[in-house]
Amino acid sequence: MKNLDFLTLLKKYELLIAAGTVLLFVLFLSAVFLLPNFSKAQEIFSKETQLRAKLSQLTKKDKLLTSLNQEFYTKTFPKIVQVLPQSRDYLSLFSRFDTLESQTGVSILRTDFQLGVVSTSSAQRREGGGEQATAVAMNFEVIGTPAQIQKFLDSLTDLTGRFMSVEDFQITFREDSLLQANFNGRAYFSILPGAIGGVDSPLPVLDKEKETLMAKIAQNQLVIAEEEAVTGSIGKKDLFK
Amino acid sequence: MAKKVMQGINLIPKRDADPVPVARLKKILPLAAVISLLLFVILFFSSLLYTNSNLSKFNRLKKDVENLENQISSQKSTEGVYTLTASLLQTLVQTISGTKHFSPLISELSTLETNGIRITSALADKKGNISISLTASSSATLSSFVNSLIAQESDKKLFTDMYAAGTIRDRKGKYNLTISMKADPSLFQ
Fold first, then answer.
1. 3-state DSSP assignment of residue A108
2. Which position among A13, A238, B33, B118 has the lowest Cβ density within 10 Å, counted as fewest Cβ atoms?
């Protein structure tokens, strides 16, 4: 009797039961197969968008790199370092003053440099090294005619050698028509960044101002200042003999 | 009478009418089931097609990116020298922009010396503050010099805010004084 009742019920609602079963089955299949497919498609789409952007960036970078004249940059870079060294480099300072003395005709009576307040290694620890030049304070005294002094001052900033600036000056007008000038100035150095960035990092763009600067410096002669080797005996090795 | 009784007896059991909600469900659910099944089949195969075609496109893109990365890596030395050059030039541009050039100022100061006027010393800083010490051979020379400076101030405007101090007349009748003034920025270009 009970079975009969059950069968009767089944017969009565067979359409509803079948439709409900199909609906449940569709829901199950959607959860297991359809939704993962959608999320995979979404993932592929978003990754594809990122890849396209990366491809465009890399294409631009590759185009720029291919157009560069490596030889020109390899030759010009040391000349730019000559103008703005990577360390205090007192040797280049002294040799620059020597060159200016002979080129302009002034006589350099005295030079004073700041030592050790900002060391090269502490400047290296600054993040993004190379964004701002570090200044080395200096004071120098020269003597010459007004024209020679002017030429000397112009040569400090004309980028034909190490770049130096003048903050202030004091000039004494001597009776022999010469000027004796005392300048407070600055020499500069710039620590270069330790790494140049990854493959996908964009290349910096050289605007017109920088290209003009580079073209001017490229005409300089590269001066290699060498320290003279110490010759001859330099003292007793044993003080007690 | 038998016929009438026969006519009254109905051997087919009377079917109970379904409640209204059940009747509605019997109409809607089968339709919903068929539609959902069809929808599932369409969406499933569409998503499969979309995924497969996009996957092959994605793989091609990935390969292109890898090739370009390798190409760029092979030009590492060029990239290095170019990047470092650009960095140095950027720093140089910033350094140069704050620099003052005193050569025009010295040239202009040298022209201040005239007959009877001798400049003994001059001080200047990059803010344009100047102080010159001079000797005038006589009061008339000094007066003439001061007037020419004032005329220059209104005319060329190279030196302004002039202030004379410490005027001393020595035994020989010469005048020593110090004039402080402000130089025009054009003298520092």
1. strand
2. A238
A166 CA to centre of own chain = 26
For residues A31 and A25, what is the distance between their CA atoms, to the nearest angstrom? 10
Amino acid at A36: P
- Whether chain B has a CB inside 8 Å of the CB on A157: the answer is yes
How far is Cα A234 from Cα B23, in angstroms, rounded to an integer? 118
pLDDT in tens, B31-82: 999 999 999 999 999 999 988 888 888 999 999 999 999 999 999 999 999 9
| The length of chain A, given as a count of residues | 241
Q: What is the DSSP string of B48-86?
A: HHHHHHHHHHHHHHHHHHHHHHHHHHTTHHHHHHHHHHH
**Chain A contact present for B49, CB below 8 A:** no
Q: 0.95 exceeded by the pTM?
A: no
Position A127 scores a pLDDT of: 40
Q: Do A48 and B79 touch (CB under 8 A)?
A: no
- The burial class, CB within 10 Å (0-12 / 13-18 / 19+), for A144 is buried
- The label of the residue with tokens 């609602």 reads A13
- Residue B87 token pair: 């960095």
For tokens 């003439």, name the residue. Answer: B144
| C-beta pairs of A95-101 under 8 Å, 24+ apart in sequence | A95/A223, A95/A225, A96/A161, A96/A162, A96/A164, A97/A140, A99/A161, A99/A223, A100/A152, A100/A155, A100/A156, A100/A161
CB contact under 8 A, A44 and B92: no
